[in-house]
Each structure stands twice: as C-alpha cells, then as structure tokens.
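Batch job 17 of 40 flagged for manual review because the log was empty.
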Amino acid sequence: DDVSFVIVEGQTVALVGQNGAGKTTLLKLLLRLYDPTEGTILLDGNDIREYEPFELYRLYSVVFQDFGKLAFTIRENIALGDMERIDDLDAIKKAAESSSADLFIEKMENGYDTELTRQFDRKGLELSVGQWQKIAVARAFFRNGEILIFDEPSASMDAEAEYILFKQLEEMAGDKTAIFVSHRLSSATISQKILFLENGRLTESGTHEQLMQNEGTYHRLFNMQAQRYIKEQNEQVEKNFMRGARDQRN
C-alpha cells in the first residue's frame, strides 16, 4: 500500500515531507473534503463515508494554511469556532492564551472588541500574518474538537517561534488526538509519531529517534535543516553585532 497507518486516540502525530509530497491532500482526505479513489479511511473501525457530514465535521478543530481573515472583531473571529458560545469571553480569552494571541490583543485599546481589517471600518486594525495565524489557532482551540488538525499553522514564524507554538499545541491538546503538518522537521520531534511522505507515498514512520537511527531520507533532511538553521542563527548574531558596533560609533 502507498499510504497505510494507524493513529491511536490521544496520540500526537506529525505529518512531514517536502513540498508536493501529499501532506495537505492527506489531511483533506481525513477531513472528507473529498473521498479516496482507492482504499478506505476508518474512524473507530467504521468507514468515514458512513458518518453524516455534520457528525463527522464536529469532531475536528482545523487550521489550514489559507485560514480566514474576516472583517469581524477579534472576539467574533475566535468565536467562529463555536458561535453558540460567542458570549463566553472567558473561554475566548483562554483560547487566545493557548496561541499567545492574548499577548498582542491585551495591548489594544478595545481588546477583544477590536475591529479587524478596513473592509467595512476605516479604523479597523490590520494584523500581521503571524498575528492572524495566532487568531486562527485560537479559533481552533475554542471549537474544542476531539481531533485537532494543523496544516502549517506557523508558516510565517521563525524556527524558534514555531517550536514554541508546537509545544503549546502539544500541551493544549492534552488527551485529544492532534495531527500537524510542518515543513520544519525540528518541530516534528515533539510528536509521539512521525509520518514521512514522499511523492504521495508513506516511506517512513516512527518516533524521531527511530527515524534518525534508520538513516533514511528523514535523517538526511533533518540534518540539512539543522545545519541551515545554525548558519542562519550565526548570520543573525553577526548582523546584530555589526549593527551594535555602528550604533556605538555614531
């Protein structure tokens, strides 16, 4: 079989591979945004096509790369995860804390009632891509689904910020099942299971330690990314040093 694996309830799983490997496609199949042309996907031993769509979708909390940037207040943007609880500000704040969105929200004059984008309000606030991502993650936690799915939720973050976010996701997931996609293999190390895809096929599966011991493609790419990260960090230190030296001369 090209792709065959089991995810145990409560497990944290990283889905990794190079661009075009099929990671997002696999997530969409798990969500039944479309059905497989061959084979089956089972949930609790039952073909997911046997579930009513609404019954299936309410199990998931999802953040895709192309998350929504909606012209609502911050409170409404987060509450979209579960609009029946839009007045539960304590739960909204807790969700924001889970993604560290609270760190910039609480600095705003209107806090959670801040209008976002200038689509309908000329005074609306335009967030950065990274801030929008944190709002999207908060929305997913507010939804409180049994299965958490994150497709590159930190694409605009640096490696350190992404690692911190994934650690937060792992802690907030608790006993829930969590599946996340990342192009940085270092973030996959916190997961209990790693699925490595190549050209639409599952070629490696196991813990980070097991895949490193196998010395396959995952091992090679992990070391390449680690070396590049070290180089980028050294270059940044040198830039900061030179900037400090110039400031002292001036």
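Reviewer: the log was empty due to a logging misconfiguration, but the result itself is present. The chain has a mean pLDDT of 85. Unflagging and moving on to job 18.
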